[in-house]
C-alpha cells in the first residue's frame, strides 16, 4: 500500500464524521416499451411533466428513452429510495407501457422510425432537439437507444483543505481539489475493469440491434446474440464507435489538458460532417460540423463535473470554478433489480471511488493508457473466462488475483465508511463482490445468461418478463398520498415553466445557436 494512501487514511480516521458528507446521485435511463416488448412510439407522457424543465423525470436521446434523476444526497440509501419513488410515480402514469429492464434495447423499429426527443419551441428546447438530430446523423439512432446508469459522487468539500494542508500543497484550494479529482479519474481508468466484471449485466442482445452489420458474436438462439464470457457488451466496441472522436486524448493528466482537448474538438471541423453541413433542405440537422457539437458528445466512462449556472456550458463551469464531483458512466442497468441498481452496488462504488481518490495516482503515459483500454475491453468481452489475464505494468496478471488484491485495499475505505456511519454495510458490500470474484456464476452477467437458459428465453422474452415483474413489484407498493402529490405538483409546475419560457422567448434560433457556439470559443486556454 502506498505511503500516501496510509497518510490519507490516518487523516480520515481522525476526521471520521466528514465521511458522512460524501454526496451521491443517480441518473437511470430506460426505454418505454409496449406490452409486446417493442419501442413505444407514443410521445413523452404529459402526466410526467415537461422533459425540458422537470428536474427528476426527463428524456435522453429518444422521446421513448426516459431518464430519472435523483438529487445529490449524503445518504446512499436515501438516494436509492428516491430513485424507487420516481419509478413508482412513473408507473401510475404508464397505462399499458413498461420500463425496459436491461441496458441493451428492446425490438427497435426501422432506424428512421426511432423518435428523437422533443423539447418544445423555446430556443434551448430546439437546441436540445437539433443536438440529438446531430447524434442521429453521426452515430445512428439505434446506438442512442442503449441505456445505462450514471453514478455521481463527490468527496466532502471540507476534506480538501485538510488534505491540502497536510500535504503542504502550494496550489490554491480550487486547483488542488480539481487536481485530486483528475487523479481519481486516472485511477478509475486503471481499475474500472473491476466494475465491469462485478456489475456488467449485458452479455446478450437482440439480433435485430446490429441491423445486419458484421460482428464477432455467437448465436444463443435464433433471435439472440451473445458472448459466453462477456460481462458488458454495452461497453464493448459494439457500442459507440466514432472515428471523429478517435483522435481525442482520453488520458487525464490535468484539468487544463482535459478541457482544452474538448474545447478544441468543439471548434475543429471534421470533413465528413462539413460535407453534410448544418442544414439540409433548409432544416437544421446538426449544431455544427465540428468533431463534437457540444462537449457532452464526448463519450467517456467517467467525467469530471461541476454544477452549471443557467445558460453556462459544462466546460465554462469547470474552467472557472474547478471540479466538484465525478460522474461514473460505465454502469449497466441490472435487469434483475427493479430500479437497475441496489444499495450493495452503491456502497461498493462509494468505497471504490474513495480508494481511487486517495491512492497514489501517477500520470498516465501512452503505454499505460492503452493498457487501461485493453484491460477494460478484455473484461467487457470475456471477463468471466477461466484464467483470464490482464496487463499490469506490462506484465500479465490473473484477473482473479488482481481483483482480490484491489478489493482487499478498498476494504480499508469500507471499514472507515462503516466506522463513520455505524454498522457494517460497506464491509458486507465488499464481501459480496469478493464472492463474485471467487465464483463468476454469481456475477450479474452470468445470472442473466443462467435465467435465459433456465427459461429457454430469447433476450427479448427474458427482458420483457423482467420488465413485467418489476412493474408488478413497483405497482404493488404505491407512494404515500403526499409523495404522489409532490410528484404531480412537480410535473404540473414543469409544464407551466416550459410554457412560460416559450412565451417569453426572444431572438431567432440561428442567432441563439451562434451565441452558444461562440461561448465556448471565448474560453481562454
TrEMBL record:
GO terms for molecular function: ligase activity. Its EC number is 6.3.2.2. The keyword Ligase applies. Residues 16-378 form the Glutamate--cysteine ligase domain. Pathway: Sulfur metabolism; glutathione biosynthesis; glutathione from L-cysteine and L-glutamate: step 1/2. InterPro entries: Gln_synth/guanido_kin_cat_dom, Glu_cys_ligase, Glut_cys_ligase. It catalyses: L-cysteine + L-glutamate + ATP = gamma-L-glutamyl-L-cysteine + ADP + phosphate + H(+). It is an enzyme of class 6 (ligase). Keywords: ATP-binding, Glutathione biosynthesis, Ligase, Nucleotide-binding. Pfam families: Glu_cys_ligase. Belongs to the glutamate--cysteine ligase type 1 family. Type 1 subfamily. This is Glutamate--cysteine ligase.
